[in-house]
């Protein structure tokens, strides 16, 4: 399957995203062939990063659920705005961290699948995040507006970071979805355009994930100060759980960024160049 245009000059093959500036260039296509010639070190790095990140992605969602059920009274809908709020952290973590994190990691986990299936799964995971984020946002809006007296909206740094994250996520999803659709419609004719989009989509995707972590950490701090007040400094059990959650989010930001940037973990491909000369 071809994804990117390459410019061949002599024995060098250079990936290009737009018309190549060099003279006598010849475009070619890259074909996917998994490079499975990995050494022990690479497999160790792969297993460590993938297993640790997966454990943290699921574990942090589990710990958020545990915290909210055990210490914050569980869930409710509009009949109890205080407990309705509890849906906010759980759904935001599920959507923005667990689903989005796995969606990004898929590109590193699935080394042997065809790229089209990985893209499809990537889209499905992000699509699953949408209802979580929408309901999580509605839960916090409701819990503010239905409180007696109502709590003001969008005054905190956390809410601003959250809004930026949601905006970026929406743009990323729309752009990614349409580039995926045009891939299905006219693969060959749009290869250059889609290849140009890849590094932009990847950078903004990682940025959105890291911003979601910043939102989650600032939200946790805010909630700890609102609910525990001075007791936060007394090493209460709940405070320790909140801190552990925050640290697991930070660890995820480090691991997922590492996985995305690491040259070892990138699905290396052997480039089979069709000679057009
Ligand atoms: C992970 C992604 C998250 C995003 C994108 C996000 C986004 C938002 C937004 C936009 C608001 C403003 C709602 C309003 O003012 O009506 C808000 C409020 C709030 N969020 Fe989050 N949130 C996230 C995670 C969390 C987490 C994990 C907690 C932990 C408890 C949390 C705690 C709060 C609190 C206490 C408020 C109400 C006070 C305020 O407006 O700052 N959030 N969130």
List keywords for this structure.
7 helices; Four Helix Bundle (Hemerythrin (Met), subunit A); heme; 7% strand; CYB561/CYBRD1-like; single chain; three-stranded antiparallel beta sheet; disordered C terminus; transmembrane; mainly alpha; 277 residues; Cytochrome b561 domain-containing protein; binds protoporphyrin IX containing FE
Description:
- This protein is mainly alpha-helical.
- It has one domain: Four Helix Bundle (Hemerythrin (Met), subunit A), CATH 1.20.120.1770.
- Helices cover about 65% and strands about 5% of the residues.
- It has 7 helices and 3 strands; from the N terminus they run βββααααααα.
- It has a 3-stranded antiparallel β-sheet with strand order 2-1-3, with helices on one face.
- Strand 1 (about 1-10) and strand 2 (about 10-15) form a beta hairpin.
- It starts with a strand and ends in a 16-residue tail after the last helix.
- The relative contact order is 0.16.
- The model is unreliable at about 1-20, about 20-35 and about 270-275 (pLDDT under 50).
- GO terms for molecular function: metal ion binding.
- It is found in: Membrane.
- Keywords: Electron transport, Heme, Iron, Membrane, Metal-binding, Transmembrane, Transmembrane helix, Transport.
- Its cofactor is heme b.
């Amino acid at each position: 399957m071809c994804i990117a245009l390459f410019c061949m000059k002599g024995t060098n093959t250079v990936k290009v995203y737009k018309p190549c500036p060099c003279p006598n260039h010849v475009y070619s296509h890259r074909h996917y062939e998994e490079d499975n010639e990995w050494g022990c070190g690479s497999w160790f790095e792969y297993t460590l990063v993938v297993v640790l990140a997966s454990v943290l992605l699921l574990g942090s969602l589990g710990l958020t659920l545990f915290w909210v059920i055990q210490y914050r009274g569980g869930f409710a809908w509009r009949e109890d705005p205080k407990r309705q709020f509890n849906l906010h952290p759980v759904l935001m973590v599920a959507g923005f961290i667990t689903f989005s994190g796995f969606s990004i990691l898929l590109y590193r986990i699935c080394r042997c699948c065809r790229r089209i299936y990985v893209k499809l799964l990537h889209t499905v995971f992000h699509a699953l995040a949408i209802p979580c984020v929408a309901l999580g946002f509605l839960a916090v809006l409701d819990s503010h507006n239905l409180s007696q007296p109502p709590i003001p909206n969008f005054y905190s740094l956390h809410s601003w970071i959250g809004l930026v994250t949601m905006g970026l996520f929406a743009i990323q999803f729309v752009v990614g979805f349409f580039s995926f659709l045009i891939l299905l419609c006219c693969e060959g004719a749009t290869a250059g355009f889609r290849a140009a989009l890849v590094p932009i989509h990847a950078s903004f995707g990682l940025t959105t994930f890291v911003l979601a972590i910043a939102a989650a950490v600032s939200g946790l701090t805010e909630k700890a100060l609102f609910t525990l007040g001075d007791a936060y400094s007394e090493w209460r059990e709940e405070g320790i759980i909140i801190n552990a959650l925050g640290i697991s989010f930070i660890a995820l930001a480090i691991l997922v960024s590492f996985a995305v940037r690491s040259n070892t973990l990138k699905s290396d491909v052997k480039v089979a160049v069709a000679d057009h000369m």
